[in-house]
Amino acid sequence: MSARSMKTQRDRALLNLLRQQFPNQNPTKSFLKQEVVLRNQQNTYTVDFNDDNTQKLTERRLNRQDFFCASEFGIFLLREPANQLGTGVLQTFPNLTNFPAVAGFTPAHLELIYNAIMRVQIQNNVVYSALDTLRFRQVPQTFQSAVNSNSQFEYEYPFMELEPMLRLSGARKNTFTLEIPLITGVQIESVTAGTDNKLVFYAGGYLIEGGATEESNREKAMVRRRNTPALQQTNPS
Fold first, then answer.
1. Which pLDDT belongs to residue 157?
2. Residue 51 in contact with residue 170, Cβ under 8 Å?
3. How far apart are CA 81 and CA 231, in angstroms?
4. Which of 177, 186, 190, 35 is nearest to 116 (CA)?
5. Of 16, 114, 130, 183, which has the maximum CB count within 10 A?
6. Cis peptide before 164 (omega within 30 of 0)
7. Sorting pLDDT into bands at 50, 70 and 90, what band is 154?
């Protein structure tokens, strides 16, 4: 079975599960995306995907009343002018075509992003304590023989399947923290006026609009079941 067929089966199984868990809502294929600007003296980057009225036009955040089940995840590099959002191409490695070396910027230092760890915490539950980011680094074979090339970006190509999947509610605190090793003289920040080097967090999965309340009720019911002792059977008199 091909990787694409396996992914299709996995997506279908997740969709059927969500339809059972949310019988009154319609799960739709969607994504979440949040960007942060890279700074030389900053080694920790945190996002929550929650809509706080500060999102950029190129981002997609989670509304407070909605629920999102993330089945795949990607970490990307991006370089684009601040006044031309949406014109940059997401990169899966420090591509010299998009990140040329100039005085004050060292493209090789961007490898720090893919030698980092990511921590994912939902409320008080730590889902991933130290997920390595090397798994998100993808260099296509076509790049090996090309002088100038962008990252190969087939839609599911750069994403890692999440297991366990992440159940994100807009009404909860969802924290994604990436910590990179900070070396002496690091140069990852853009030195070109009006242009930013960015780190992009990208989650793919299913969105359920208005599903935050039902997800909260589902979790409360699960807690009650765990905390309720099993009824002891008695012999009939």
1. 60
2. yes
3. 64
4. 177
5. 114
6. yes
7. very low
